[in-house]
From TrEMBL:
The protein's Enzyme Commission number: 4.2.3.4
Protein name, UniProt field: 3-dehydroquinate synthase
This protein's pathway: Metabolic intermediate biosynthesis; chorismate biosynthesis; chorismate from D-erythrose 4-phosphate and phosphoenolpyruvate: step 2/7
NCBIfam families, alphabetized: aroB
Compartmental location: Cytoplasm
Species annotation: Candidatus Roizmanbacteria bacterium CG22_combo_CG10-13_8_21_14_all_35_9
Domain 3-dehydroquinate synthase N-terminal, first and last residues per copy: 53-165
Entry's Gene Ontology molecular function annotations: 3-dehydroquinate synthase activity; metal ion binding; nucleotide binding
Domain 3-dehydroquinate synthase C-terminal: 168-310
Assigned keywords, A-Z: Amino-acid biosynthesis, Aromatic amino acid biosynthesis, Cobalt, Cytoplasm, Lyase, Metal-binding, NAD, Nucleotide-binding, Zinc
Location, primary (coarse class): cytoplasm
UniProt record similarity statement: Belongs to the sugar phosphate cyclases superfamily. Dehydroquinate synthase family.
Name of a matching Pfam family: DHQ_synthase
Length: 346
């Protein structure tokens, strides 16, 4: 597993956390939004000549065309197999940067510095890298752990409020998976009301929850599938929303998926109405969406067939029995899936 540093103002003392002298060359991958705030402080802190690869922000850039441009820059800069790619940014940068590094010259080391709360609690752990392909989120990718993850909560100061709230889609999911104590903590306030000390505690706990699962099942053959709770419907909604004039952030789509899949668990008799109400209330309290307009059941169902947990085109669900207990490899009757998906409509 990757070694993770979590704290405040780590960007300014990164050389104290890790020795970069053993690498032949360093390159930083970031996007235009993050570069405005954090690229120069990072370069000053590294105290070593670095090359920069700056791409446009957003999920739309997470594709093979962007990867080819990144590879070309890496060759142009003379990176070799002893070089290091530093990914400075949110989930898109961590995903595409990890994939680019893992495939460049059959794989070079990379280090992640996630600058969004969502990336800090989700993309920072687990070794998943990848890009979107033909409208399928994360359709292409590899498992490869970064050599280090450095989380500096100071970077959250420049995070838009919507991005902060979006992260709580994944954070609340961790609560449903792990137990009532964490769920109560992360739903006790609105996301923007947590102070820095409380956010560090939430980040550490979310990472611990995910790490414990990933260590037992790194390649998602079994237990790790519980982390996909909310994602079968959520990923389908997210992918479809890219084609509309109101694209969703990942955590927003997952929040809708959590509500819909909790409803599916209730309809199947796996979970109680009380559990569903508590979960939906937690999502609502965070200011996350629970419904979406302009998408029909007929739109969503075919996209779900590409879910990576599927086997022979059968959808296998990860569904909650209660807060703190999520089961996986569950088959669901199509008529109940339709009813659950209808739950997402405004």
């Amino acid at each position: 597993m990757e070694k993770i540093f979590i704290g405040n103002n780590f960007l300014s003392k990164i050389n104290q956390l890790f020795d970069f002298s053993r690498f032949s060359k360093l390159a930083i991958l970031t996007d235009t939004n993050v570069a405005k705030h954090w690229l120069l402080p990072l370069k000053k802190s590294l105290k070593k000549k670095t090359s920069e690869i700056i791409i446009q922000p957003g999920e739309k850039e997470k594709n093979i065309k962007t990867v080819k441009n990144i590879w070309k820059k890496m060759f142009d800069f003379g990176l070799d197999r002893k070089s290091l790619l530093i990914n400075l940014g949110g989930g898109v940068i961590c995903d595409i940067g990890g994939f680019s590094a893992s495939t460049f010259m059959r794989g070079i080391e990379f280090l992640n510095i996630p600058t969004t709360l969502l990336a800090q609690v989700d993309a920072s752990v687990g070794g998943k890298t990848g890009i979107d392909f033909e409208g399928i989120k994360n359709g292409i990718g590899v498992f490869k752990n970064p050599m280090r993850v450095i989380i500096d909560v100071k970077t959250l100061k420049t995070l838009p409020k919507r991005e902060l709230i979006s992260a709580f889609g994944e954070i609340i999911k961790h609560g449903v998976i792990s137990g009532q104590k964490h769920f109560d903590l992360v739903t006790s306030k609105k996301p923007e009301e947590f102070n820095q000390r409380e956010l560090i505690k939430i980040i550490k706990q979310s990472i611990k929850i995910k790490s414990n699962i990933v260590q037992k099942d790194p390649k998602e053959k079994d237990l790790r599938k519980v982390l996909n709770f909310g994602h079968t419907i959520g990923h389908a909604i997210e992918s479809l929303s890219w084609k509309t004039d109101s694209p969703l952030l990942h955590g927003e789509a997952v929040a809708i998926g959590i509500v819909a899949e909790s409803k599916l668990a209730q309809l199947m008799g796996l979970s109680s109405e009380k559990n569903f109400i508590a979960t939906e209330k937690g999502i609502n309290h965070a200011g996350l969406p629970t419904r979406i307009k302009n998408l029909s059941v007929e739109d969503i169902l075919p996209v779900m067939s590409f879910d990576k947990k599927n086997i022979r085109k059968k959808i296998f669900w990860s569904l909650p029995r209660k807060i703190g207990k999520v089961d996986f490899n569950i088959e669901a009757p199509k008529e109940l899936v339709v009813k659950a998906v209808e739950q997402t409509k405004i």
